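Newbie here. two chains, one complex. Structure please?
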Amino acid sequence: MKNELEGVNKDVYKTDWQWQEGEYTVTRTNMWTAPGCHNGCSVLYYTKDGQLEKIEGDPLSPYNQGRLCMRCLDYVETATHPDRLKYPLKRAGERGENKWERISWEEAYDIIVDEVRKIQKDFGPECIVSMQGTGRNICWQTPYLSYSAFGSPNFVLGFLSGDACYLPRTTIGHCFMGDFMVADTSQHLERRYDDPEYKLPEYILIVGNNPLISNGDGFFGHWIVDVMKEGTKLITLDPSCTWLASKSEHWLRVRPGTDAAVILAMLNVIINEDLYDHDFVQNWCYGFEELTERVQEYTPEKAAQIAWIEADEIRAAARAFASGNPSAIQWGLKVDQTVCGIPLAHGLLSMAAICGDIDVPGGCMIPRCAYDISDSYGCGLWNVSDDMMQKMLGVETSPLHALGFDPTANGDTVLEAIETGKPYPIKMLFIQSTNPIANMAADAPRVYRAMRSVPFNVVVDVFMTPTAIACADSVLPCGMSSERNSGRVWWWPLRSIVKVNEYYEAKSDEQIILELGKRLNPDLFPWKDDIELMTWWVQSGNRFHAGWPAKTDETFPELVEKVIDWPDDWAYKKYEKGMLRDDGEPGFNTNTGKCELYLTLFEAWGFDPLPYYEEPPESPISTPELMEEYPYVLTTGARTWEYFHSEERQVPRLRESHPDPLTDLHPDLAAEIGVVAGDWVWVENMRGKCKQRVRINPTLHPKVVRSEHGWWFPEREGAEPSLFGVFDSNINNLTVQGVTGPTLYGAPYANQICKVYPVTPENDGSMSAVITASVKGGN
Amino acid sequence: MAEKYGLLIDYEWCTGCHSCEMACKVELNLGEGHYGIKLFEDGPRKMPNGKWEYLYLPAPTSLCDLCAKRTEAGKLPTCVHHCQAACMSYGTVEELAAKAAGKPKTCIFVPC
């Protein structure tokens, strides 16, 4: 697709940031959560008398070019939903009873400040853990609050086992080349596909995600359709035939969790058939001989046997990828969700490197946030003392955490600390826009029991959630995207988020951290209001080293007028130009200055310095003794058009489109257990079970089961024992916490084993009732 | 006679994202069970050549007025505007027929 902005009717759609259209004020800005999402699409808000009445995609935005997904299109219905949290609440009954008393913001802050001060004094600030989910506009806000107001180094993702979303890829990217890689579909160029510097990828390898639906990591999935129309071909690794897989030149139906074996075999083919880029390997790679030796173990035949595919499919895919000039890799969450997430990501980086695709137009470009804005989990970490940093949970067991390759504490270690009181007790959870027991936490029942045992918990969210009812003592209502002054910068460009309306007493996360921070540690929260705070954020890169990207002195009000800001210092092949290294020399920001196929840091730490494959801890190969009872391989977490993880189940138009939790079965498997489409089945393993409805999927391997995640039922009773039915259909009754790769990264969310059988009147029942009963009297 | 307008769907690229359905429901303020355009799915189904057929096609219903108010104001029909795959066009039947003639897997609807 060409950049069609020229064809837009400029009498109707303007480049101003705000204008009047009849009775409506039109505001041109960008959207990012709530509702949750990994994108940040450009929108037009139509407001009248302070009310938001309509939303439309901004056709003059090079980012999404007017396009929007279901969730943004239905934004007004979500934002005006009667069940939204309107006021701060204090728990009135016991935890789990869903009884609340409305309080003022002043009182809510006073309660939190008193608790924080007591914990800081009696136990130490490290006993306060802050957490957030994925894809909500709190990437830097909650970390800044934790490090600067609570004084605690313990900021985590909501009990995400093995940090198994994105962080394995970013961490290994930093060890491999000092940076991350992203498939280049021209998203860093303002003129997009028309920019003369841009080149179409000849192939895109899609692994570990269905980008059209997930839009992961700030990547608008339909950009892939744009380049397909111009001739880009696809290679897809996926256990199920997604729409993209069906359009792929090569679809490899891998057994869940075995992608690393396939990628190593592709490396074997590319190296042994001499299909790699000799110049790049010689000039910019370190450890090619060691990699060559390592991949000899992974013949296509061996990998095919592991992954339940054909050796020739692997050969063909490898040859196609290597032939692409350039080829790009679109990698996603499922890369992280195996115990060998780190070595799989290492293998993919190695493939991009030896094929010469790193940071070339249309290849695997190296991104950083525009203006070097401090947009992530490390925001404010500079306010934590070295001594306090040593207390971060996970530091003792993982050198990657200790050295700040990933600024978060480790979720599995936090869970253990809550359960054991070691190395110190956890006294407070500040839970901002995450609903762990419905979504992110593996072994959700275990996490539920742990959260219940923490003395003081605060939840900040848009709706009352099962997590809030189960464990919160205070609940604060947060604003949705149109109700906040904020910004978006997952790489490039920088985008404004402008407040156009208010909802009862809901406040933006920016306002909440600022007002709370001012009360706890005013020196580190010197800003008058959210506008000043956002100006600091836009300029926050100024604190870092002098290299690329260039910094800015732009203010937030200036950004609001620009709407979208494309800095002028985007460049390809930055390693040739001295833009990547802290010392300004050419090369990559690693010890060797090269892409480290052989990781010098891993060698020093005693980890395997080369990519490898490890079988999932429970599988037909690892645990043959369990396969008679649990004969199927279970993958989870495939996204849906309607929902972002556990969100939006209460929104009528979205729920209508997808009313029930679905488990995909091959027709042979369905026949074997005697079910048809729409029947309810139990999906069960050694740890637990949940109930979902059958969808027939003929593209699966007959032994592979694919279940949805994130389901709870806002229409059911909120109080226990129901707890909005959060454990009734919860696939995380079956997953496991505390089983990770040796680096603590990567967890087997998406490669479990299970059995499946029909729900009958005799075996029917509510898992929520069973699981909530297990803590009765415990608090 | 006034020129007839319609929708062209380039269904080679329709990904089944439902954005047309939702945009329309919001525009026409339609409740549960009502659609101004409805998405149909075919597949995934294995073809004799071993490849998988997996197609989507949205079809306008009796409620579709081709967004008369929007087009009068100089805007595109909301389904066309928001289509994530950018595979829908609005125009006169004559214009659309010319486009369709040059492109396989296309379909023209004239809903009203």
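Moderator note: The two ends of chain B are 14 Å apart (CA to CA). The CA atoms of residues 43 and 49 of chain B lie 15 Å apart. Thread marked as resolved.
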